[in-house]
Amino acid sequence: MVLLDGKKTSQEIKNELKLAVDAIRQQGGKIPHLAAVLVGNDGASETYVASKVKSCEEVGFGSTLIRLDANISENELLQTIERLNKDPEVDGFIVQLPLPKHISENKVIESIAPEKDVDGFHPINIGRMAKNLPAYIPATPYGILQMLERYNIETSGKHCVVIGRSNIVGSPMSILMARNTKIGNCTVTLCHSKTQNLEEFTKKADIVIVALGKPEFLTANMVKEGAVIIDVGITRVEDSSKKSGYRIVGDVCFDEVSQKASFITPVPGGVGLMTVTSLMQNTLLAAQKRVYQ
Questions:
Q1: In the 8-state DSSP scheme, what is residue 241?
Q2: In terms of domains, do 239 and 199 share one?
Q3: Residue 111 CB neighbours (<10 A)
Q4: Is the pLDDT of residue 235 over 90?
Q5: Which CATH number is 73's domain given?
Q6: 20, 214, 260, 273: which has the fewest Cβ within 10 Å?
């Protein structure tokens, strides 16, 4: 079993990004600038945004964090987005999800200029991705693709089962794994809450990507020997033996599934770390105008 080390791989990518920024600086070019909009004070969102700001500092990007009150009106948020759309200093920006219930996530996502949508959630980017055209790929799926590529995992002709159909991970991942690209060319089965006899699919899978948000859902009896396991889930589970009172687990029962897997991502230390670096890569592409020209 080989551990797909997100910490090591994300650091490799950060080093590459830092070199790219150094080259831009030496040539007198514009340094990439990423902005993040945080509405309210959701704990997980705070942690994620702080990680993005720290990563920007590490690689030499410019960054802006815009904090807005949880009671802000939808119209006021849309006005903030429009200002960022028009700001020539900002190459890409994200509006951190989830948003307060009174604000439409779809309306917010669709108001972001596609050429600055480095989260890759705008319908235009999703459509371009589906047609295998240059696009900003959603950060978590992009991170998974890079892990598969950097560990030289063969995907062509393999059966890939994706569990979960969210717009952020599951659905785009199913499209990406089926595309005619180096990391792709899989026969893909997309499973979800209404799938019957789920084990029949997972037991036949060469690659299983789990993005459900259900702690330790995938167990050893559900996978075949030698499968590649990608765990996207991250959940806090109460644990009185820990000083914090909880432990972090994924959607995969790691201790038992790792005994059968050929490759597996840990939680923490796997896919989550790749998400931030993938966002940074999209921002570099935005600064270089390599997607929308």
A1: T
A2: yes
A3: 19
A4: no
A5: 3.40.50.10860
A6: 214
pLDDT digits (tens, 9 = 90+) for 35-93: 999 999 877 788 888 888 899 999 999 999 999 999 999 999 999 999 999 999 999 99
Spatial contact of 277 and 143, defined as CB atoms under 8 Å apart: yes
Q: What is the CA radius of gyration of the chain?
A: 19
Find the mean pLDDT for residues 206-230.
97
Rounded distance, CA 293 to CA 286, Å? Answer: 10
Instruction: Based on the fold, state whether residues 100 and 34 are members of the same structural domain.
Output: yes
User: What pLDDT sits at residue 45?
Assistant: 80
User: Averaged over 208-219, what is the pLDDT?
Assistant: 96
Asked whether residue 132 is assigned to any structural domain, the reply reads no
**Total Cβ atoms within 10 A of residue 96:** 19
| Side chain identity, residue 48 | Y
Residue 236 has pLDDT above 90, yes or no: no
Catalytic, out of 5, 14, 96, 206: 96
Strand partners, 235: 249
Average pLDDT, the chain: 94
Same domain flag for 143 and 94: no
Is 119 a known active-site residue? yes
Instruction: For residue 157, give the CATH number of its domain.
Output: 3.40.50.720
pTM value is: 0.94
Say which of 5, 52, 116, 146 is annotated catalytic.
Answer: 52
Residue 240 lies in a domain: yes
Catalytic status, residue 52: yes
Whether 279 and 119 have beta carbons less than 8 Å apart is answered as: yes
* Number of domain units in the chain: 2
The one catalytic residue among 5, 91, 119, 231: 119
